[in-house]
Amino acid sequence: MGPSDLRQTILDSAVAHIAERGPDGLSFRRLAKAAGVSHQAPYHHFVDRHGIFEAISDEGFAMLFDAMRRAIATADGDPAAALLESYVGFALEHRGHFRVMFRPDLCASGGQAFDTLVDVVRVSLGPDATIDEIRARTTAMWSMAHGLATLLVDGPLERKIGPITDHRAFVRAVAEQSGLTAVVDRPAV
Description:
By secondary structure, the chain is mainly alpha-helical. Helix content is 71%, strand content 0%. Helix 3 runs antiparallel to helix 4, helix 4 packs parallel to helix 7 (131-153) and helix 6 packs across helix 7. The radius of gyration is 19 Å and the shape is elongated.
């Protein structure tokens, strides 16, 4: 196994641990055992837990950005709902990444994903939209997407409302009920 393969194996073990148990309790010794390497191997690639969390965050934001870009490219006339679906879908599929990405000490690497959201809002609201309107709409969309994703990944939502059999349809219904898509999807003047 080459150095980059070993690094990715350790990173994958960390993501799996976090997806199952959360970031608390993550230790190099536990990672080494899960990855099947010596207890010193993780230290050759990461200085400490923060280094692992940074790598997970960077990888996660790159994947989220890619998912958002694909969602916009294949949106069936509803870019707001497509973005919400891609965000929540990413969180559900990549719980280990999602649980680390928005830590206050790591959020810097999320710029491309956030810029994608701002661009969709800016284009959808049209050239007459003020910066305050763009900021408010972007914040509303991000808050909804992140809140819904968090409630599905770590929160009690399904325990409260019952099982959700089709997450994509559920997210689309939430987007429609919120009224966000009606405003974001209005034609630019």
